[in-house]
Amino acid sequence: MVLNIHKDHARFRKIVRGKIRQNLKKYISQGELMGRKGKDAVSIPVPQIDIPQFRFGQKQQGGVGQGDGDVGDPVGQGDEPGDGKQAGQGPGEHAIEVEVRLDELAEILGEELALPKIQPRGADKIQTVKDRYTGIRRVGPETLRHFRRTFRAALLRQLASGTYNAADPVIVPTRDDKRYRSWKTEALPHSNAVIIYMMDVSGSMGDEQKEIVRIESFWIDTWLRSQYTGIESRYIIHDATAREVDRDTFFHTRESGGTMISSAYKLCAEIIEQDYPTDQWNIYPFHFSDGDNWSVDDTLLCVELMKNRLLAKVNVFCYGQVESPYGSGQFVKDLREHFAGSDDVITSEIKNKDGIVGSIKEFLGKGK
Fold first, then answer.
1. What is the mean pLDDT of the chain?
2. What confidence tens digit (pLDDT) does each residue in 116-141 have?
3. CA 19 to chain centre
4. Are 332 and 320 in contact (CB under 8 A)?
5. Which fold would CATH assign to domain 191-364?
């Protein structure tokens, strides 16, 4: 019975997984999963799956297969359709919510977008512990009993004592025959990563643009957390000046005034230099803006900061330009001009929520 339950559960999870993959683009573009996120899992609405079954009605009710009928009688004729003004009596369409672990959701995202696994470039000083099976011993819990070793010990004992009967080869292990797996705990270094999010919060970045950034950052977090054991997130907002804030402030601050992108890049470089040694951390800066900058001189300063203080220390630098009716969109053109052919700088233009899927693939598709 237990095995059947496991088989049914595995089959159900497979069906759910297929439904998630089928509707993944909708889940991403609509952003409906953020409010359903828990610590390690997220609730996903999937269409209810009904199992076909027979329903038996009263006998002699007429219809196909019951009672008399003549050739040419209509089949399947039901009640006249209503005009939509009165409440109906039939069941409506319902969706069920299935809890999916974030690591499984990341796996589905990786499969659907063909994202390569990331090869970490550093190991942090923090260590994790892992139990590794290293040998066999005579005592232990039954869950760790080694069947082959136990059978062999029982067989050797019966052969040595002359109780083994080749015509009736029944092997019955005694307590002394039982063998169990033994293990030892090993300390293993694990790779750490930090994501540094930067966003323009000047007046030209409206609520719709920030919602796009919020949705995309959720999926970036989900994927990178599946690739690294330890991960941290830092948040920088800027208009003419930059400052570090918490996650809630990052997504809900709205200011006015000019935009000097270099202020965010300077602060990002200072955070990396102070807190994240490049031989121990994998570093991912993500900057989102509508493409407006204060001046050409400040854009050149951004390029200089990237070349001299950022690119040599990070895995990859990602710039996402969110389309805004008030933004010029010039900054992405300048970056592409100065870093043409470079694998260390990835740029992406996000016109609307439907462009989030393509942007995620552009950012994470190189496996860096």
1. 80
2. 888 776 654 445 555 677 788 888 88
3. 16
4. no
5. Rossmann fold (3.40.50)
CB 329 within 8 A of CB 83: no
Bridge-based pairing state of the strands 95-101 and 127-137: unpaired
Query: DSSP states of 184-248 as a string?
Result: EEEEEE--EEEEEEEEE-STTS-HHHHHHHHHHHHHHHHHHHHH-SEEEEEEEEESSSEEEE-HH
Residue among 176, 35, 14 at smallest CA distance from 108? 14
Q: Which helix (H) or strand (E) is 250 found in, with range?
A: helix 247-252
| Token pair for 342 | 């470079």
Amino acid at site 58: Q
**What are the structure tokens assigned to 286, written together?**
């993500």
pLDDT in tens, 201-230: 987 788 888 889 989 998 998 899 888 877
Other C-beta atoms lying within 10 Å of the C-beta of residue 303: 18
Q: How many residues does the chain have?
A: 368
Q: How far apart are CA 257 and CA 138, in angstroms?
A: 74
SS3 181: strand
The angle formed by the CA atoms of residues 249, 345 and 225, to the nearest 5 degrees, is 55
Backbone CA torsion sign across 330, 336, 339, 343: positive
Q: How big is the chain by its Cα radius of gyration, in Å? A: 31
How far, in Å, CA of 119 to CA of 191, rounded? 10
Asked if 112 contacts 21 with a C-beta cutoff of 8 angstroms, the reply is: yes
Closest CA to 355 of 247, 215, 204, 223: 215
**Structure tokens of 157?**
């004992």
Tokens 């643009």, residue?
A: 209
Q: Is 34 exposed, middle or buried (0-12, 13-18, 19+ CB in 10 A)?
A: middle
Q: Report which residue type is found at 221.
A: D
The reported pLDDT for the residue numbered 182 is 84
Between β-strands 95-101 and 41-47, what pairing exists: parallel, antiparallel or unpaired?
A: antiparallel
Which H or E run includes 347? strand 345-350
Secondary structure of residue 108 in the 3-state scheme: helix
Give domain limits for the chain: 1-48+95-114, 127-187, 191-364
Could you tell me if 266 and 242 are in contact, meaning their C-beta atoms sit under 8 angstroms apart?
Answer: yes
